[in-house]
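Input/output pair, single chain:
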Amino acid sequence: MARLNGWIARATGFGGALWNENKGPWGGGSGDKSGGDGAGGDSGGPRNPWAFPPEGKRGGKSNVSSLDDFLKRARKGGGGSGGGGGRGGLPTGMPSRPVVLIATGLLVLAWIAFTSVHVITPEQRGVVKLLGRYAYTMEPGIGMTLPAPIATVEKVNVQKITNEDFPQGSGENLMLTQDQNIVDLAYAVRWDIANPEDFVFQIAEPTTTVRATAESAMRAAVAGVTLNDAIGPGRTVIEARVQQTMQAILDEYNSGVRVRGVSIKNASAPAAVDEAFKQVTAAQQAAEGDRNQARAYAQQVLAGAQGAATEFDKIYEQYRLAPEVTRRRLYYETMEAVLAKSNKTVVETRGVTPYLPLPAARGNPVQPQVQQGQAAQPAQPAQPAQPAQQQGGAQ
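Output:
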């Protein structure tokens, strides 16, 4: 406070000394024209640069004062040969003591008003520090504290969700998988502030801490899966594992940070081997298509077998009711199905005509006579005709 009053006194004293009753910026002079140092008017020596010009050039009579005289008067409280003395040792034109006290009081009141009243918006929380230590947390609204530097308030936005991208900008982010392959992984982490006081006091660099934790958790998760899982269906598992690991580490630090989510934006092979991995991916897709066709065929065969089994169950129910009839019917149906597409040789029992009578060929008058139940008789040779005499003698 004493230093502040000193500066005010110097500023006002300097102004009063510049514009005193003699209306000269360097105060009133003694009127000495001799100018032993060249300050006088018509002497032939060099003119003092801090003195007024000669009277002839000013167009009238004026008092001449040097800078040394002004400094002497200022040190003596405004006294001197040409300047009047001030009250209480202050230079002429210096404000009175009540005015200085009022100005000082206004400055103190403004300082208290600007450092004691705090406006907290709905998305903010105010962490109050009393002599550098945590005191309490201010809720949204207008709050009062002790003036600074006794008490200070740090405003924290608890509704802002910060998004951290890995890697930052363009470039590769290579990681090693469980099967000793390398994957280029780009992902993002979203986080916000859950505990303002821990966020302010527990970690010095929140962004750096969150990024280091995210990189460590992601590399640990990728190291536990294969390349196919990292670039394929295993992304969801990796994201959930990284979020859980990050939250556990940040809770151990008492950081006050809450991890909102982890999302993998891109997972691919490095650019140097990207073409080979594309061929591998195409082969995997072809293999998956063949597997799908095999599954469809297996389902078709299984459906047919289930239908045959259902039909057999129905036939079995009928067999239980009439075993002999069902057995004979099954035999006939089976033989009909087997013999329908094959050449057949029929062997019948005795007394059955082994062949059917067929008509004779055209031009052949011989008509075989076949009677059912009789075998074909061989033809008898013709007898020669007897003479009539012999016939008559025999009679």
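The CA atoms of residues 90 and 259 lie 66 Å apart. The mean pLDDT is 75.
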